[in-house]
Amino acid sequence: MTEAWVLVANGSEARLFRHEGKHLTLIEEFAHPDSRRKDREITSDHSSHRETRTDGTASQKAYGSFPEPTDPHDFEVDRFARELAHTLDTHRAKNAFSELIVVAPPRFHGRFNQHMTNELTRCVKGNLEKDYTKVPEQELFDRLASQLG
């Protein structure tokens, strides 16, 4: 029997399910709260460097005054996509599943696809570009029934 898994994800959270007959069984949930933080909150974690002058007063050095090379929010979303792809590829390598259905909004779907290995890509049986992360399990099964077979 073919073991099918379903990944339902967006840029900050994901759920991984096993397809079992007429329902889905939750395997694992993932959260990446940094993807939800505002850019200012992400970059404020990088405190500026303080330097003490010889007269005892403090001055700010200009470290960090250059713009970030990548949008901090996009960086965190990309990092989450990379982590999910790596996790799934690890499970695939252990033969935990042979088919995968990926359900994610278009932008995150593209990010996730960029980080999938060729072997993991070959397991993908279906793609659905929707954000179903808040959809209850039985309703999710109903919405995916045609792809689950």
What would your notes on this structure say?
It is a single chain. With 149 residues, the protein is an alpha/beta fold. It has one domain: Nucleotidyltransferase, domain 5. It has five helices and seven strands. It has helices at 39-43, 72-93, 106-115, 118-123, 137-148; strands spanning 4-9, 13-20, 23-31, 50-52, 58-60, 99-103, 124-128. The protein has a five-stranded mixed beta sheet. It has a two-stranded antiparallel ribbon with strand order 4-5. It starts with a strand and ends with a helix.
List the SSEs and their pairings.
Blueprint: E1 4-9, E2 13-20, E3 23-31, H1 39-43, E4 50-52, E5 58-60, H2 72-93, E6 99-103, H3 106-115, H4 118-123, E7 124-128, H5 137-148
Parallel strand pairs: 1-6, 6-7
Antiparallel strand pairs: 1-2, 2-3, 4-5
Helix pairs in contact: 2-3
What key attributes describe this structure?
5 helices; Nucleotidyltransferase, domain 5; 149 residues; 5-stranded mixed sheet
Strand content: 25-35%
Can you count the beta strands?
7
List segments where confidence is low: pLDDT < 50 over at least 5 consecutive residues.
Answer: 46-53, 57-68
* The CATH homology group name: eRF1 domain 2
Mean pLDDT across the residues is 82
Strand order of the largest sheet: 3-2-1-6-7
In the CATH scheme, the class would be: Alpha Beta
Main sheet: strands, sense, barrel: 5 strands, mixed
Q: Give the tally of structural domains.
A: 1
Helical content band: 25-40%
End-to-end separation in angstroms reads: 13 Å
- Find the CATH topology: Nucleotidyltransferase, domain 5
Query: What is the N-to-C order of secondary-structure elements (H for helix, E for strand)?
Result: EEEHEEHEHHEH
Structure annotation, total helices: 5
Strand pairing plus helix content: what structural class?
alpha/beta
Shape: globular
CATH architecture: 2-Layer Sandwich
